[in-house]
Every structure is written in structure tokens, then in C-alpha cells.
Amino acid sequence: MRAGRKLWWFYLIALAVFLADQVSKKWIEQNLGPGDKIEVLGNFFVITFIKNPGAAFGILKEQTVFFLIVTVIVVSGIVWYMHRAYRTFGPLPPVGLALILGGAIGNFVDRAIYGEVVDFLQFTFGTWVFPIFNLADTGITVGVCLLLLDAVLAFARKDDRKDGDKTEEERDRQGEERPQFDG
Fold first, then answer.
1. Sign of CA dihedral 140, 141, 146, 148
2. Of 179, 182, 172, which Cα lies nearest the Cα of 90?
3. Which of 49, 53, 58, 114 has the highest CB neighbour number within 10 Å of its CB?
4. Could you give the strand order of the β-sheet that contains 117-125, starting from the edge strand earlier in sequence?
């Protein structure tokens, strides 16, 4: 991360995702019954309350212990990696990892306590209905997209540089001075 950005922002973003996920799930549970629907934008966007004992898109149903173990490993890996490498990141990876962390913990809490997660966001495209999901899933998905975008941009930057050229981050990491241009 650049000077001035601290690691606590990473945790603040993760906390915001976690809280938004938990509050939204509680609101759905308190105001709707399983299977109830609220049309928000016609058939395109519908709030539909379901309980999902599986993973994304309902796969691997009733594998709660497996999901809990995988989530502990993923969350531990994200936290370890951020503490080890956050100073070398540009802006996208910390935000992406924070979104993933907040979403993973949000779904983890539900699986640990209830053995399932509440899903409620449903989108329909023509006759195709996208699997119902929640805000934790959204955080995870957007986080992964940001990491992929950063990887693509890093690859493009690497291809644009001449052999031997270093980025500002690489020079900073190695304690080198930046080139000065007179003009």
C-alpha cells in the first residue's frame, strides 16, 4: 500500500461487508417467510427468501463441516497474506481481499450457527433465473473480480515496460531512488 494507507482500512472494509450481510439477512428473516417474494424491478430483480444449506448456487448441500474448515483456511490465509504483503500492493488487491474476507466471515457465521445461509437476491434475464445469493456472496464475487482485474492490469503493465524497467512500487520496495527528469 502507498504511504498513508494503513492496514486498518482493510479490516474496516471487511467489517462493513460483514455487517451489511448480517443486517440484511436478519431483516429478510424478520420480515419474510421462506419462499416469500418482493418484486423490486418487475421480474428482473426480486427479493426471494430461501435458506441454502449448500455453497454458491446451492451446490454441495449439507456439507457444513467442509465449508467451515475451508473458510477457516481461506480467512487465515487472507489475514496472513495481508499482514505479510500489504505494503507492496496497489489499491485493488487490499480492497478485493477485504471484500472476500467480509463475505467469507458473513457466510461462515451463518453456517456455524444455523448450518445454512439466508439467500435473497434474485435476478432474472429473460427466461433464465440466476441462482439466488446474498450480500456476502456479492462481496466475495466482487473481491475476486478486483483481484483478477489487478492481475490483468499488472500483466498489461509488465508487457508495456521495456526489459529492465522497474515500476515505482518495485523501486520503493528495493529502496532505489526514482529517476529525476529535468525539464
1. positive
2. 172
3. 49
4. 37-41, 45-52, 117-125, 128-129
Q: Is residue 169 part of a domain?
A: no
The tens place of each residue's pLDDT in the chain, 183 residues long, gives 444 457 888 999 999 999 999 999 999 999 999 999 999 999 899 999 999 887 665 666 667 788 889 899 999 999 998 887 777 778 888 999 999 999 999 999 999 999 889 999 999 998 999 999 999 999 999 999 999 999 999 888 876 665 556 666 666 666 666 555 554
Give me the catalytic one of 21, 110, 137, 150.
Answer: 137
- Based on the residue annotation, tell me whether 119 is a catalytic residue of this protein: yes
Domain presence at residue 175: no
Could you tell me the pTM of the whole model? 0.79
Residue 123 lies in a domain: yes
User: Does 164 reside within a domain?
Assistant: no
The number of angstroms, rounded, from the C-alpha of 123 to the middle of its chain's C-alpha atoms is: 19
Neighbouring-strand partners of residue 39: 46
Cell readout for 109 is 457465521
Which candidate in 119, 159, 160, 182 is catalytic? Answer: 119
Domain of residue 17, residue span: 8-158
